[in-house]
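Work through this:
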Amino acid sequence: MAADFTWESVIVGSSLSAVAAAEEANCPILFNKSPAFFKFSKLSCGAFAHEKWQSAASDIAIKGLNPFGDKITLLRVNEGEIEVVCHNKKYTISCENIKFFDDEAIENFPFDKLNIEKYHVCDWFRVTSGAKHDFWFLDDEEDFVKKIYFLPKITLPKYKDCVSESYITENNLNHVDYTSTMARHKTAEMMKRAGILGTKHTKTYRYPIKLDFIERQVFEIKEEILLKKDNYILDSRELK
């Protein structure tokens, strides 16, 4: 059966490292999962990771290097080819070299599955008391609620909501001490220690700081390795 595409090389992954590599090498790319970023993550150069990703992803899309976009549901690796499943349609790509940046949604993956070292957890809160202050950032020495970022409310930009950033091991991810409720309590306590005050009620009284939970984002942090096997390369290193 004739291949639908014939490429010398192909990149598999949707991370910033993957799209940056595809852009630099002018190489076709296959997204094996939906990209996800924390809004405040920055690279060592100071640029926001999601903005860098969007720029590179747009460039490779314009060049026609991402023909399947976000439609891929499964990839199947066979000798000398890779099958691309998009819901109820299947395509065959003949290729000599495959460079993997991740291991998800791939059948016949030629390497051992990557270990998850910990989780990057971001808890978003609506601040209903204590939303007016001059802070944009708070940090702590502990990995749980290690940082707090403040952002203007959409409809009331003079006031701020916030998101806390934590690093949690797999064993603790579902532990009661590391839930979004505990993150909310610690976030409010850190705000209080920083001198942030709750909403003024009378001349002498202010309400306590109050946060309403919105959502929790959980990102896997996998081991970073570089391996080569035959015509395959696995590079799970993050772009710093």
Remarks:
- The chain has two domains: 5-115+223-235, 118-220.
- The chain has a mean pLDDT of 95.
